[in-house]
Amino acid sequence: MKKTWYNKIGMLFIGTAAGCILSLFWGFTNDDVVQKERPLVSSMSVTPTTPYQISFCGQTIDLKRYERHEALDRELTSFSYLHATTMLLIKRANRYFPIIEPILEANGIPDDFKYLAVIESNLDQRAVSPAKAAGFWQFMPQTAKQYGLTITTSVDERFHVEKATNAACRYLKDAYKKYNDWVSVAASYNAGMGRISGELEKQAAGSALDLWLVEETSRYVYRILAIKQIFENPYKYGFILESDDLYKPIRFQKVETKDIPDLSEFAKQHGITYADLKRFNPWLKERKLQSFGKIYTIDVPLKEDLYYEAGTVKVHNPAWVVK
Q: What is the mean pLDDT of residues 233-247?
């Protein structure tokens, strides 16, 4: 009898305490808890805003059709919640867009194609795909040589930002002569001109966006459009950066040379480490440079640019940082 009474008191106490805790946690009365019961979540996820049209290379792309709207929504959602990766892309762009943009402009290529490089490589100079495509623009060896890049036992210019960007521009211009449409040009960079041309004809379509393609190629242009949206307004998509968060641009001394028997010794003579030499010249494959009579230009980073100090990072695009 006494044990039963203690059990009843204990259960009453536990129930009352639980109710009070729930009331405090949710800010509701007991009645409110019953009426507004909801699952407990640790964080809130908000779907990103998907526009009904977007500009790409001076062309307005209508995104009202279901498949286009949903395709862009998928990529915006993906990039918005790949927080670490997308944040790093913006940080890296502050270093590399000042190099890429002038080359695109000099070659008559729309500025929006810098986002193709972002999609291709995550702006990782040393990026190599499982298929052995390499560098910012992910050239395959045969295509790289076709567009003027040197690949030898000691040099791979697919990893040279300036030279690879110029080579990409030559490809993009060839593709534009074929399609006269920058969206189809972008799609062909992923699938190849032969595939896009063949499918446009077989499917009687006027735009690469209207083609039925393998999933990777179907998503490709929309990934470019999505990352452009986020880069143009990071804060809108939940990315908050200040100037000191961005990766600082590095200035270089340009050193022309032919054969270098020992790159470690070369680095030491120029006041930098071998690691620094390789980081800023990833196109150097070996511990020596065999030029085969060709003159190469090596980037030697300026020492004063190798250190961070508060308030010294130059912001390439003011839209990337909070005011």
A: 95
